[in-house]
Amino acid sequence: MRWTCLNTKYISSSSVLKPTYVTNTNNHFEFQRRYQFRAVGDLPNESLPDTLHAKSVKNGSLDNLDVRNYVTSLYVKSNKLDYAHKLFGESPDRDVRSWTILISGFARIGYCRMVLELFKQMQIERVFPNQFTLSSVLKSCSSLSDFRMGKGIHGWILSNGIDLDVVLENSILDVYVKCGALDYAEKFFETMKERDTVTWNVMMGAYMHIGDMEKALDLFRRLPFKDVASWNTIIYGLMRNGHATYALELLSEMVEIGPPFDKVTFSVALVLASSLYVLELGRQIHGRVLRFGIQNDGFLRTSLIDMYSKCGKMEKALLIFKTLPLRTNSKFTCHETKTEVVSWSSMVSGYVRNGEYEYALLTFCSMVREQIMVDRFSVTSIVSACANVGILLLGQHIHAHIQKIGYKTDVHLGSSYIDMYAKCGSLNDAWRIFKQTVDLNVVLWTSTISACALHGQGKEAVRLFELMIQEGIKPNEVSFVVVLNACSHAGLLEEGCKYFSLMKEVYGIKPGAEHFTCMVDLYGRAGRLDEIKEFIHKNGISQLSSVWKSFLSSCRLHKNFELGKWVSERLLKLEPFDEGSYVLLSNMCAANHRWEEAAGMRRLMQQRGINKVAGQSWIQQKNQVHSFVVGDRSHPHSTEIYSYLDELIGRLKEIGYSLDVKMVMQDVEEEQGEVLLGYHSEKLAIAYGIMSTTSGIPIRIMKNLRVCTDCHNFIKYTSQLLDREIIVRDLHRFHHFKHGLCSCGDFWSLL
To answer: Could you write out the DSSP letters of every residue in 673-741?
Structure first.
């Protein structure tokens, strides 16, 4: 690239920041006297450029180049770049200061392409740039990763014999680093005669960006003087590259021998505490922040919110969130607006992460009501919340709002939509999103395969998986978990074994706990209990509690009580306080009429302080969620619900339904057992749904536990008798009941 310019006298960067007419007191007062300008402090900052501009036009002083440059600089400092650009364009003559003022202003706000365009025009007009001009232009090259332009400017500097100070050299070094030209950066670094801490920090950052922590640490140790930025750079880089423990060691070292913390250090330390989930460390850092009196800093506030939410302390996060400055008619600065958005977003994602989906939705609604800008992070978080809540209408409203505010469906948002619609019971909507997305990657394919598996369409999930491979998409670990789970739900043992081998032998993926658990579940559904023992021994996975849980469920399914006791002994050694293991064994005992043993397991749970999660079902009707538990009579229409349910059970018995009293986990008479079974939470919810909706509208029920065998039969007979579609989402999957059949084919999760 060729650059031409008049070989005029070089003007130092200081002349741009402090124009010659204000370098001494006498000249300054002469300037004010001559052009009759009041002192800067006499005018409001926002009105100062406009006032001085108008006055200089009126008294004719705008014809003076120094005056024009001064007014232009005021427009730049007031972020009125459009006025500054217009005044610059109207100037009959422009010197290096004129160009540098405008170029540096656009560089500061990130208008990098405008900077490069102005620099080209500057060269055409044969105005020789100074060091400050070049630094601003090189900064823009770094931001745009424009290697060709950056290298060209470096060559132009050398060919014109410009003296390089360390600031300008650092700008050149940063261009090579940001453009990924590490070989150029290394060579340039070695030729630098003078290096300051910025130089070393830039090179450390370059090595950490490519994951070469050894070279980054070597530079850090060789650094003659380590300022606070050096410590921040290395600690943050270690953390980002998966060396959080070492980063914590260096943070401790910084406390002992390093410089005092600045705001960036506190922010990095809080991110470190949250990544390690070390609440005590976060509290100590919070205490230091309070002692320094900087708790109202926007970025520190968001870091504190994020730390407490990741450590599971949402009440603490909320207290900090409430210290956000109230919105008034006054304008927020760009910095304040950004930190405000991040704070709201952190609260939404924090509630989602901690399973408090209702609070996440309420916070998001407040965010919209307060007209806070909704960023992409908030969008994906709230879609995830809708997926977990499972209320279709709410999910559709959120989707519509996201489209309204202008977010297009990219890969990440698309996969979130697919997951949301699948978990809200609308597989058709999930399919629609998949088909509308242009650039399909492994995440979108996997989400759609998972959606099919969740809704009992195991064979369709397998077909999609095969199609994905044919399209040249390489499956990952999650893809194989999903397809193995689909095979498990559909009882496709042969296909499951094929994919398990394919994963290891063709794609070189090492099986994890979820893959092994799916295989045990597959063998268990097929009744091959002896092969499960062999599989566990062969793969050396006896330490995985999830594998033994699946094995125990299979023993219960196939009524192998003795083997179940043997499995439960091993399971309770691994997880002595897991309520699911006790409940499974207790249910097995009750199913075999071993009431004393079942009661013994329940007593053992009480002695160890282990509580069984209560079954709960809910249904949404007319923008209101109605919740039910077994035997619940708190609903305002409970009398009508129970009366209708009794009548419905009577009608179902006439077409062949009978209550499965074996499911009652107490030693009671058959008639008492029927009463206990008759009022399970899902039956109450379905009865209310039938009463509250017209024929032809699907009834959608959510349940926090697995649907029991009796309720599963009850819903099948109900769908047949009333010709109603009933969709039930339990802990593991969806059941679509229609015409007396279920989409699961009577194969549903054993756990």
So the answer is: HHHHHHT-HHHHHHHHHHHHS-TTSPEEEEESSPPPHHHHHHHHHHHHHHT--EEEE-SS-EEEEETTE
Tokens standing for residue 241? 């590259």
d(Cα 90, Cα 62) in Å, to the nearest integer?
11
| Alpha carbon distance, N-terminus to C-terminus of the chain | 68
- What's the rounded Cα separation, in Å, for the pair 386 and 420? 6
Residue found under tokens 């709960």: 616
Residue holding tokens 């250090």? 265
pLDDT one-digit tens code per residue, 439-494: 889 999 999 999 999 998 889 999 999 999 999 999 999 999 999 999 988 889 99
% helix, strand, coil for the chain, step of 5: 65, 5, 30
Query: In angstroms, rounded to a whole number, what is the distance separating the alpha carbons of residues 457 and 717?
Result: 21
Neighbours of 369 (CB within 10 A): 8
Cα separation, 39 vs 500, whole angstroms: 79
Whole-angstrom distance, CA of residue 584 vs CA of residue 602: 11
Q: Render pLDDT for 26-59 as a digit per residue (tens, 0 to 9).
A: 443 344 444 444 444 444 456 788 888 888 888 8
Query: Residue type at 55?
Result: K
- 46-60 in b/e burial notation, b at 16+ Cβ within 10 A? eebbbbbbebbeeee
3-state secondary structure of 202: helix
Cα-based angle 303, 307, 309 (whole degrees, multiple of 5): 115
> Edge-to-edge, what's the strand order for the sheet holding 741-742?
624-629, 616-621, 699-703, 726-729, 734-738, 741-742
Closest CA to 248 of 281, 283, 222: 281
d(CA 664, CA 672): 9
